[in-house]
Inverse folding.
């Protein structure tokens, strides 16, 4: 992708300005009555786009209902940068992951105490996975810069092969075509993808130390793990919101929206009437549907539809297995549902919060076969729980409260909408 | 639950044990579990037996065994997905091939073939799933027991 040296310079200047003024843009005068000049507010609004995705060999490779943005990565502490378009915005994961084939910069490895590179693994429910080393970059979005952020370089050919504990019998999704994106920007509820479990003894198979003899699962300190870049911004770091307009029942070929960093930190990111819902350490809450409570619910901009329960429970027929819409629901006519999301109040009041959600599921087959790629009515099965995917974000402002970070809504991890 | 026996309690490795293979003999549960140093408990039910294998990383695998000693179902919860190549054996190939034919979305994986059923859901820190063989469900046992 193209090089953009000048943006690094602008960001550096902004950072110095902030440091000199010791913070923020809200107070206009000092205690002695001497009026000071306000620094310009940090630009915290990053455009997002839903469209056909990146092009590989002359073909669009995006999936339906993908939210993309453009991320600038730089060699740490330098103005040697690269702008990467069509990076998927994923509230269901944490950290920035870029296929090695996309990266043109020469980046430093994150290493362990023995100076060995660290391998990172991420798996998805569809049993695809990404494997590759951690490297450090400065991440720029809008006017925000996160410095020396560990990211995953996915699938480099000159790195150890994925261990079996990572592949787990699944399928690699390590190319732009397989991802339908030039990378994944995980801006979910957590500071790190794994967190304390991966810093302790007997960690899950997410981090590996990779000496020449081969990669072995190993504890990795929090600071070396894959980081949510948003919580590493010097300001506007307590969370983010994603704002997307609504579309009609036939969908749309594209849709433009915004990702705004910070929650109630500037004039443009107030909570307004949004209600906040705490998530558990796994990132989940419960959903009540037809009087029954289902655990394991989550909000995931990286999922292509409303994925919930099963055909028997919802009375929605599954699409034919040999059709383009395999894996979705195909009701003869649209069906409207209401569910209730429940979780603790992130202010710690002890009084649970419940928020109704109304949604509609249409026949996926004509939608999938149409030119549209943005849909508010695409659904499919997710046995036993609710995955509130990309359609949930349409016509809403959805706030992501990062773990351990505070806002007027309370302490993360929480969702607010 | 009629009884619970803790058969082994050996600690230590980071990698989680996959257990016996779907459709295979329950004897391999013991072999695999010993090899991988996990904890195992056996729960006797009326028409089947459940082997619970607990890993130090928080992964829980359950294997459902017929009175004849065959594994008719498996389930898992944990921070990562266990090695399905081992857990599902040859059926993982059928599962993966079915999934590959529908790669146009991001979602849970649900495969419902005539005999093999596999459901894989969740996300990092909180995965769960199950698999069973319709043809091997013991008499009087429904797929609902595989949880």
């Amino acid at each position: 992708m193209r090089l953009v040296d000048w943006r690094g310079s602008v960001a550096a200047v902004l950072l110095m300005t902030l440091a000199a003024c010791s913070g923020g843009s809200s107070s206009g005068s000092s205690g002695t009555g001497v009026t000071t000049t306000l620094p310009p507010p940090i630009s915290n609004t990053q455009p997002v786009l839903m469209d056909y995705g990146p092009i590989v060999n002359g073909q669009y490779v995006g999936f339906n209902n993908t939210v993309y943005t453009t991320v600038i990565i730089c060699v740490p502490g330098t103005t040697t940068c690269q702008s990467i378009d069509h990076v998927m915005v994923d509230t269901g994961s944490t950290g920035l992951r870029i296929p090695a084939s996309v990266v043109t910069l020469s980046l430093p490895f994150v290493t362990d105490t023995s100076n060995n590179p660290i391998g990172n693994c991420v798996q998805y429910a569809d049993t695809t996975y990404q494997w590759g080393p951690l490297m450090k970059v400065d991440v720029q979005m809008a006017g925000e810069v996160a410095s020396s952020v560990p990211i995953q370089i996915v699938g480099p050919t000159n790195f150890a092969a994925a261990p079996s504990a990572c592949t787990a019998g699944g399928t690699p999704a390590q190319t732009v075509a397989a991802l339908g994106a030039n990378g994944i920007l995980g801006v979910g509820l957590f500071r790190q993808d794994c967190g304390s479990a991966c810093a302790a003894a007997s960690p899950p198979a997410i981090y590996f130390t990779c000496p020449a003899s081969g990669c072995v699962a190993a504890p990795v300190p929090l600071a070396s793990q894959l980081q949510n870049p948003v919580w590493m911004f010097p300001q506007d770091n307590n969370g983010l919101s994603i704002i997307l307009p609504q579309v009609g029942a036939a969908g749309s070929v594209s849709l433009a929206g915004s990702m705004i960093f910070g929650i109630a930190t500037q004039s443009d990111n107030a909570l307004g009437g949004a209600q906040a819902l705490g998530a558990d350490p796994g990132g989940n809450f419960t959903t009540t549907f037809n009087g029954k409570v289902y655990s394991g619910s989550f909000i995931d901009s990286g999922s292509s539809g409303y994925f919930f329960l099963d055909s028997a429970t919802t009375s929605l027929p599954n699409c034919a297995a040999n059709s383009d819409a395999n894996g979705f629901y195909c009701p003869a006519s649209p069906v409207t549902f209401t569910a209730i999301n429940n979780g603790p109040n992130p202010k710690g009041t002890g009084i649970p919060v419940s928020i109704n959600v109304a949604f509609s599921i249409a026949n996926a087959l004509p939608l999938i076969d149409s030119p549209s790629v943005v849909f508010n009515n695409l659904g499919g099965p997710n046995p036993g729980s609710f995955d509130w995917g990309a359609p949930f974000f349409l016509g809403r402002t959805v706030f992501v409260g990062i773990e351990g970070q505070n806002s007027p809504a309370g302490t993360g991890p929480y969702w607010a909408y | 639950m009629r009884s619970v026996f803790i058969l082994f309690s050996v600690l230590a490795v980071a990698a989680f044990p996959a257990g016996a293979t779907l459709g295979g003999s329950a004897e391999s549960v013991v072999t695999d579990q010993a090899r991988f140093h996990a904890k195992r408990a056996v729960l006797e039910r009326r028409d089947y037996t459940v082997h619970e294998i607990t890993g130090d990383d928080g992964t829980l695998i359950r294997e459902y065994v017929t009175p004849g000693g065959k594994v008719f179902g498996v389930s898992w919860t944990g921070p990562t997905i266990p090695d399905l190549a081992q857990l599902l054996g040859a059926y993982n190939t059928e599962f993966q091939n079915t999934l590959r034919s529908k790669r146009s979305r991001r979602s849970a994986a649900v495969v419902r073939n005539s005999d093999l059923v596999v459901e894989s859901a969740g996300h990092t820190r909180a995965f769960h799933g199950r698999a069973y063989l319709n043809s091997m469900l013991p008499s009087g046992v429904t797929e609902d027991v595989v949880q």
